[in-house]
């Protein structure tokens, strides 16, 4: 039996710190004698006792195993051994720290080859998450859609006419029926008065319109091809279709002038609520943030248009238009400062009317100095009649903010209340001191800082309308003051 070599000397092999110190005669890197120095260091390493023992062990193992011996695998394995008090130079790899099992379960360090230093990285396939034209329709949903399209277009080899296409708009596209005209025109670009099955499939299915949310669908259908916004003109086909087909507006067909004014008013109301920037260009983000789509569906389902209070109520339009007609005494479709001061039986103060005609809250679209057109009046009356809405709060906050610094100080409030106090005295009403009014306003709004008010303070309070009425609308101010205090407290509690 072959006697195993004594590896006690090898097992005692450890990294000596003093061996890491280079001889003092080593030249700087790049010197001509650098190669000679390296040879000297290698010869010095070979002469060390530990190295001699290692080489002897390797030679004996090579003789015992023949040509199949991998000497390169021996050196790292033995260099890992050392004294228990000597730490390794770096963390051990999990592959090196495992002990391979030999015959009978004994470890055989010298004979165990190392695993490859690097393994082929497994490439993780990341599914596509961005689609320039929208996410494709799932196969099953697309198959169902094609089946419905085949049923709707069955028997119409040339395609569907616009009245026949209304069913497609409502049942398949899930859009209000009065989008039929504009959707039909988007598909029938050549004005053939027909929409074929293939043309509809290309526009609605193959272009991934079905996978878009409702707001994006409406935005894409209404906007012009080279625009990324909606203008007031883009809504005209929808309002035209609504006027022609809604049963609640059938009585207007004999009065085209009122039809036109109604459509204008609806569009102005939409932009008043949604286009908060006020630039007349409605973005997709603004459309998504609003409630227009719900109102469109409500108008499509409700036969009584007056029950659709948002945007489409004919009664609301009639009140707005009649108010404007009463103030426009010469009927040139413009009103000036003297006309507006008569609004609500002279309810507004001169100072607030001056601020409105200074175009502080909103630039007039009339383009005539000192003249307010119908669109400007719609914005005014919507702000006046519902001061709790955010567009109204912005409108009146800008009017009161004399220096435009974004806060309302006590001095600014007193400036507007002075005229209110004077009017109360002229009407033989018991005057209310500004100090008392100020305390009431602070208690009503509850600002973060009692010394001034910000627009955020009004956002948190539903009684902001009374705040502004105190400052410039005498009729509504007196009506609020004459209310039962118990009802006022109940209102405050219900609108924290």
Automatic annotation (TrEMBL):
Domain of life: Eukaryota
Gene Ontology cellular-component terms listed: protein phosphatase type 2A complex
Species per Swiss-Prot/TrEMBL record: Triticum turgidum subsp. durum
Disordered: region residues: 83-110
Protein name stated in the entry: EF-hand domain-containing protein
GO molecular function, one term: calcium ion binding
UniProt xrefs under InterPro entries: EF-hand-dom_pair, EF-hand_13, EF_Hand_1_Ca_BS, EF_hand_dom
Keywords: Calcium, Metal-binding
One Pfam short name: EF-hand_13
PANTHER family: OS02G0191700 PROTEIN, PHOSPHATASE 2A REGULATORY SUBUNIT-RELATED
């Amino acid at each position: 039996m072959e006697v195993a070599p004594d590896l006690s000397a090898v097992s005692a092999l450890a990294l000596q710190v003093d061996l890491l110190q280079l001889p003092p005669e080593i030249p700087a890197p790049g010197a001509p004698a650098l190669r000679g120095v390296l040879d000297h260091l290698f010869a010095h390493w070979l002469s060390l006792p530990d190295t001699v023992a290692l080489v002897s062990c390797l030679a004996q193992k090579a003789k015992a195993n023949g040509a199949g011996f991998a000497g390169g695998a021996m050196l790292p394995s033995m260099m890992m051994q050392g004294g228990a008090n000597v730490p390794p130079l770096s963390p051990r790899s999990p592959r090196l720290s495992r002990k391979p099992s030999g015959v009978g379960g004994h470890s055989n360090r010298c004979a165990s080859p190392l695993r490859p230093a690097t393994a082929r990285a497994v490439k993780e396939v990341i599914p596509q998450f961005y689609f320039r034209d929208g996410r494709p329709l799932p196969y099953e949903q697309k198959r169902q859609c094609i089946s419905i399209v085949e049923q709707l277009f069955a028997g119409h080899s040339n395609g569907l006419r616009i009245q026949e296409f209304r069913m497609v708009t409502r049942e398949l596209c899930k859009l209000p029926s009065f989008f039929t005209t504009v959707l039909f025109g988007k598909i029938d670009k050549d004005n053939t008065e027909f929409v074929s099955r293939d043309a509809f499939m290309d526009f609605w299915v193959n272009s991934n319109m079905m996978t878009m949310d409702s707001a994006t669908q409406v935005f894409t259908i209404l906007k012009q091809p080279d625009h990324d916004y909606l203008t007031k003109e883009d809504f005209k086909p929808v309002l035209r279709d609504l006027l022609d087909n809604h049963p609640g507006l059938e009585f207007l067909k004999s009065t085209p002038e009122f039809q036109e004014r109604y459509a204008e008013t609806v569009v102005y109301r939409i932009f008043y609520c949604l286009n908060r920037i006020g630039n007349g260009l409605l973005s997709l983000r603004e459309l998504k943030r609003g409630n227009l789509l719900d109102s469109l569906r409500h108008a499509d389902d409700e036969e009584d248009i007056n029950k659709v209070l948002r945007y489409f109520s004919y009664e609301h339009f009639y009140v707005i238009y009649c108010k404007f007609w009463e103030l426009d005494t010469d009927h040139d479709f413009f009103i000036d400062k003297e006309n507006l001061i008569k609004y609500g039986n002279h309810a507004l103060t001169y100072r607030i009317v001056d601020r409105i005609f200074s175009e502080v809250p909103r630039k007039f679209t009339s383009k005539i100095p000192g003249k307010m057109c119908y669109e400007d009046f719609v914005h005014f009356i919507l702000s006046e009649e519902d001061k709790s809405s955010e567009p109204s709060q912005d409108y009146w906050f800008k009017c009161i903010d004399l220096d435009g610094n974004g806060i309302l100080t006590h001095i600014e409030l007193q400036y507007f209340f002075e005229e209110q106090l004077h009017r109360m005295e002229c009407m033989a009403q018991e005057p209310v001191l500004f100090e008392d009014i100020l305390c009431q306003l602070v208690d009503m709004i509850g600002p973060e800082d009692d010394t001034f008010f910000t627009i955020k303070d009004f956002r948190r309070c539903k009684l902001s309308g009374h705040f502004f009425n105190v400052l410039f609308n005498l009729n509504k101010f007196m009506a609020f003051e004459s209310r039962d205090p118990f009802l006022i407290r109940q209102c405050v509690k219900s609108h924290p």
